[in-house]
């Protein structure tokens, strides 16, 4: 099965819960994937970003709640959505990588499906193009969608 990476091109996405538009969309995509039965890893650039996303997921309306935890949190059962950051990740197998890092994480090859973003900011667009090239060089099938 070919590895697939979906890039979302952000133009008019409205941020929620004090997050950036990219982070808000990442939360919504993680929730949608969980509802389809997928186990999700949201890979953040920093611990602070991970904490912000964790907090935003707790602030969702009760009917929008998704079970999640931060990497390293001791829980009885592995949550279906894990939020990690550079150099901090649990070892559970996940179906979908949602990448918020400026680079393609070293562990991306362990996934068959990834989501990445092309933000509106020019500097961030350049970084996204580099990630797109990296995925392509690693043999991923790539697609884009307007968000």
Automatic annotation (TrEMBL):
InterPro entries: DNA_pol3_chi (IPR007459), PolIII_chi_sf (IPR036768)
Superkingdom field: Bacteria
GO BP of this protein: DNA replication; positive regulation of DNA-templated DNA replication initiation
Gene Ontology MF: a single term: DNA binding
PANTHER family linked: DNA POLYMERASE III SUBUNIT CHI (PTHR38767:SF1)
Name of this chain's protein: DNA polymerase III subunit chi
Species the sequence originates in: Caviibacterium pharyngocola
């Amino acid at each position: 099965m070919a590895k697939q990476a979906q890039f979302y091109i952000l133009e008019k996405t409205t941020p929620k819960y004090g997050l950036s538009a990219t982070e808000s969309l990442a939360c919504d995509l993680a929730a949608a994937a969980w509802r389809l039965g997928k186990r999700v890893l949201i890979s953040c650039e920093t611990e602070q970003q991970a904490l912000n996303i964790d907090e935003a997921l707790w602030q969702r309306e009760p009917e929008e709640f998704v079970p999640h935890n931060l990497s390293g949190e001791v829980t009885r059962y592995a949550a279906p959505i894990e939020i990690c950051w550079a150099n901090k990740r649990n070892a559970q197998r996940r179906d979908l990588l949602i990448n918020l890092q400026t680079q393609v994480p070293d562990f991306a090859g362990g996934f068959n499906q990834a989501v990445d973003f092309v933000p509106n900011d020019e500097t961030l667009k350049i970084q996204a193009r580099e990630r797109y090239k990296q995925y392509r060089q690693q043999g991923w099938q790539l697609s884009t969608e307007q968000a």
